[in-house]
Inverse folding.
């Protein structure tokens, strides 16, 4: 059986897609899985150690050990990662951690100059 995993995929500057499978953490995921929480951390410009994010928020997603979810993030132009676990608040126990995902700015690029080059063939 494959181990627990979670992936964070940016959709646009304010939305991410999370996909996870925690079945390896539970003996009978269809009947005995506790409530799963996704904890989203802002880890912009830091080396994350599990406790030092700029801020975090929880998204309870129910009792399914496998799933996917769209999550709205409050700020664009930041780096977020997700921990999937059980509990919430101070009782949260992470089971796995996603990749860090960069979210683009939510405004147009200010650079308007175009730089062209030619290639000799």
């Amino acid at each position: 059986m494959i181990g627990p995993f979670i992936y964070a995929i940016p959709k646009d500057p304010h939305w991410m897609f999370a996909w996870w499978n925690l079945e390896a953490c539970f003996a009978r995921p269809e009947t005995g899985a506790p409530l799963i929480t996704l904890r989203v951390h802002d880890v912009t410009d830091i080396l994350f150690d599990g406790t030092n994010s700029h801020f975090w928020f929880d998204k309870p997603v129910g009792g399914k050990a496998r799933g996917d979810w769209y999550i709205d993030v409050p700020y664009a132009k930041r780096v977020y990662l997700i921990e999937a676990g059980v509990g919430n608040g101070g009782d949260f126990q992470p089971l796995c951690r996603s990749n860090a995902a960069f979210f683009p700015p939510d405004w147009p690029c200010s650079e308007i100059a175009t730089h062209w080059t030619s290639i000799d063939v």
